[in-house]
């Protein structure tokens, strides 16, 4: 399967740090072509001269109210316009990660997959973008020019622009393209290329932790594709609110055993509550590595308490995990699954179905726990030899998408083998969240544990109804790695 091509912009919030560490474990599966520091309403460095209000009058920053008061928070603090910097992040943190912790485990990771990029390559694609102020698009920067070059290059694969902070550096790159070409004969082709090639993740209702897209970008490229995933992966409250089958993987015992300790320096850098980590530039009540409570100052939200070594957050990984090429087809068609659930256009809301974990209307993520097992297994890759670890099975699906009348019985066939020679477990299942059928009930796959089996399309299905069937395969192991195939079945007229 083709590797997704991604570029990341990050404001270096502590959850971004954890996202970067987790990302490092999957660098063999992704074509990461750029990592760019940017600003956001949570972090900006200042330029030593101006204030936030000088540069970005339409700002979102909650300023000192965010951690010194509860006066109607969250909302922009009127006094934030006087800020010359705000919770400035540690510049060079990413480069240090590549030079030190990643470099230390890189030789062992290469034993498990030859596709891991070198620390030198990662350093070469790590750039500094528009970091002075939230929403700052005044000038081109090294990072914005780098993004511009990637957008305009000859690689026609989708370029996923992942916003882990403000979207302002991405917007600055788009502004530069518009400024250089909109009055030229090339403009129609350039515009078409940008729209065809680029897809943004990490923006909600047009806001990417700043207002720069709404203020400067939307009018220039109104057709730019923006996707969102159904679920936030590893958010700040994961140890309290994750679905029942996986919530233990965000709590101290599991994290200490499988991630934080005994897996080399890269995993040891993972930040957990009260693990001793000090984050440069953060106020006292945002130093989660030194405390066990989270108080965001939301008037309607209580103070949350945690145990030492519980999970603090990895919210921005929600832009990455849906793109991982594990056989799920969500990026191709939002009705199919992804590790982050269904993908949908920004501004839309996916329909709720049934959540077996709560027993109520809602949505569940049937792929989450399998992905948590892979997290633990890839942590082992950092230190253990190849023969002691589990590796991805190879899945071969022998059937394609189908168009059949209601009441049809369709044949399903797939196979899998394990490169380590372990016994394989397989399962055919219905991805109910992706199905658009609203009849009397979605039937199960016949003999779901068999690799070759059947599925009956309900007799009361209507033309246009859609069913998603998922084949999964994993080795018999404590922490298996799972790979998938997905088949779509569309109901036609008789």
In short, what is this structure?
By secondary structure, this protein is of the alpha/beta class.
Spell out the key features of this protein.
4-stranded mixed β-sheet, 494 residues, alpha/beta, 7-stranded mixed β-sheet, 13 helices
Question: What would you say this structure looks like, in words?
Answer:
The chain is α/β, with parallel strands linked by helices and 494 residues long. 24% of the residues lie in helices and 19% in strands. It has helices at residues 14-25, 52-55, 65-68, 93-112, 119-124, 142-152, 168-181, 187-197, 212-217, 238-241, 252-260, 264-268, 368-381, and strands spanning 5-10, 31-37, 126-128, 159-164, 198-201, 225-229, 293-294, 304-305, 343-345, 353-355, 360-362, 394-397, 402-405, 409-417, 424-430, 452-456, 466-475, 482-492. The strands form five sheets. A seven-stranded mixed beta sheet has the order 3-2-1-4-5-6-9. The protein has a four-stranded mixed beta sheet with strand order 13-18-17-15. Helix 1 packs parallel to helix 4 (93-112) and helix 6 packs across helix 7 (168-181).
């Amino acid at each position: 399967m083709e590797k997704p091509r991604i570029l990341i912009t990050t404001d270096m919030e502590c959850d971004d740090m954890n996202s970067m560490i987790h990302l490092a474990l999957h660098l063999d599966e992704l074509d990461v072509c750029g990592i760019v520091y940017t600003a956001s309403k949570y972090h900006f460095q200042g330029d030593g001269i101006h204030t936030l209000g000088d540069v970005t009058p339409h700002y979102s920053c909650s300023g000192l109210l965010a951690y010194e008061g509860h006066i109607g928070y969250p909302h922009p603090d009127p006094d934030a316009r006087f800020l010359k910097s705000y919770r400035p992040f540690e510049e060079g943190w990413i480069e240090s990660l590549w030079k030190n912790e990643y470099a230390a485990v890189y030789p062992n990771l290469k034993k498990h997959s030859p596709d891991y990029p070198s620390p030198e390559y990662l350093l070469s694609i790590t750039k500094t973008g528009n970091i002075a102020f939230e929403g700052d698009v005044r000038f081109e920067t090294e990072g914005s020019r780098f993004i511009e070059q990637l957008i305009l290059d000859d690689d026609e694969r989708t370029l996923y622009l992942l916003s882990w902070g403000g979207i302002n550096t991405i917007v600055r790159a788009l502004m530069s393209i518009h400024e250089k070409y909109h009055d030229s004969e090339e403009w129609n082709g350039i515009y078409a290329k940008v729209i065809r090639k680029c897809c943004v993740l990490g923006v909600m209702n047009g806001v990417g932790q700043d207002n720069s897209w709404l203020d400067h970008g939307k009018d220039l490229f109104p057709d730019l594709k923006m996707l969102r995933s159904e679920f936030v992966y590893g958010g700040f409250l994961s140890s309290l609110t994750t679905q029942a089958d996986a919530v233990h993987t965000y709590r101290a015992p599991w994290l200490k055993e499988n991630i934080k300790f005994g897996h080399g320096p890269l995993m040891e850098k993972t930040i957990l509550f009260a693990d001793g980590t000090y984050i440069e530039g953060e106020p006292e009540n945002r130093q989660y590595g030194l405390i066990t409570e989270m108080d965001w100052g939301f008037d309607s939200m209580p103070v949350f308490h945690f145990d030492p070594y519980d999970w603090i957050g990895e919210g921005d990984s929600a832009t990455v995990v849906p793109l991982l090429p594990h056989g799920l087809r969500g990026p191709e068609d939002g009705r199919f699954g992804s590790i982050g659930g269904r993908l949908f256009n920004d501004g839309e809301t996916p329909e709720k179905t049934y959540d077996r974990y709560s027993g109520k209307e809602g949505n569940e993520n049937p792929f989450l726990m399998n992905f948590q097992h892979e997290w633990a297994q890839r942590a082992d890759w950092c230190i253990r030899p190849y023969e002691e670890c589990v590796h991805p099975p190879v899945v071969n699906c022998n059937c394609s998408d189908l168009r059949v009348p209601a009441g049809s019985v369709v044949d399903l066939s797939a196979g899998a083998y394990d490169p380590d020679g372990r016994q394989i477990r397989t399962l055919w299942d219905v991805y109910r969240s992706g199905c658009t059928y609203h009849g009397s009930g979605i039937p199960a796959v016949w003999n779901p544990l068999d690799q070759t089996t059947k599925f009956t399309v309900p007799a009361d299905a209507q033309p246009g109804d859609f069913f998603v069937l998922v084949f999964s395969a994993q080795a018999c192991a404590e922490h298996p790695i799972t790979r998938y195939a997905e088949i779509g079945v569309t109901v036609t007229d008789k």
